[in-house]
Design goal:
It is found in: Nucleus, Nucleolus. It holds the Pfam family RTC_insert. Keywords: Nucleus, Ribosome biogenesis. One of its GO terms (biological process) is endonucleolytic cleavage of tricistronic rRNA transcript (SSU-rRNA, 5.8S rRNA, LSU-rRNA). This protein has nine helices and 19 strands. It has 383 residues and is an alpha+beta fold. The relative contact order is 0.13.
Amino acid sequence: MPPVAQEGNCLIYRGSNFLKQRLILACLSGKALKITQIRSEDESAPGLREYEISLIRLLDKITNGTRIELNPAGTSVMFTPGLLHGGQIHHDCCVQRGIGYYLDALIALGPFCKNSLHCTLRGVTNSKDSPSVDHIKGAALSLLKRFLLVDDGLDLRVVKRGVAPLGGGEIEFRCPVRKSLRAIQCQAQGMIKRIRGTVYACKVSPAMANRTVEAAKGCMLKFLPDVYIYTDQNRGKMSGNSPGFGICLLAETTDGVCFAADCSSNTPDESDTPAVPEDLGQEVAMRLLDEIYRGGCCDSAYQWLAALYMALGQKHVSKFLTGALSTYTVHFLQHLRDFFSITFKLENPDAEDEDEADDERGAQKVLMACVGIGYTNINKRVN
């Protein structure tokens, strides 16, 4: 959805959709952002949700000089970004969303800070509505490494697990800074060479984890012999505040592309029917196979991140092959045009011999191409 209006350097939008995208791009472009009519028609709970306010507070912590103005009802916000400062940050994330919701923003902004990011986030490490920490470690960080070239200082570590609804988990994220990102040509997906996974169990019987492993492994071994799934049993203080279990599977290709899928058990308030480990294992295996079928050079959950790094790269042509674009990515490309006036060329490669090669290549691919804007990290300290 295009901005409703533009007043000087300030973009004005309506509604709460894609709030995180808009805030991230505002921080990178330096443009002020005004969002009105945020859930204004919701009589029971109008305005910003607690997790959205928590995200704004996190962005305030990693920037210097950010001004935030909220109206009393919370249905309108004015966000004027400051300089990206980075450094050491501690943040207690709202448990309505997983830590992955907040990590996405840090991964997008981290390379452009003045100082290397060292963040400690506390909250829900594995939830259904956000990518899990394991998913991000496998899919998002492997994508970021392609653009950084040298990944010294890039790390994501799970200190404690914490599942919904009460959380209690903790992670540490470190990200180096760069003067600029390189333009890349990434059009080779490669063949799947191995599958790795992590099953976690917090405050539940260890048998739950083992049964989930057996079910997931049973599905994946039909396609590939190199399948290994680790179990992460947590007890006492290391297991967070709520009982639960889940699984994250990661498929690696010969060209270093990672596809990920995760699944977690129902929380007590979500459903009266408890999750069955065998069903969970099969479901995550099917999700991973669907991800592999979509294909491309990145996971479908992080197509938007590839588009962001391409747009901000050096003033050369970048090309990136992905599977079918998700709705989230389509809206992100529209927001990139609003904030940076950059457009992408999207085409279907090899469309003419689609019928012959369809069985080998999986779903129809999209080749994204753009010329980077040559974004330079003006915040980076000159040594």
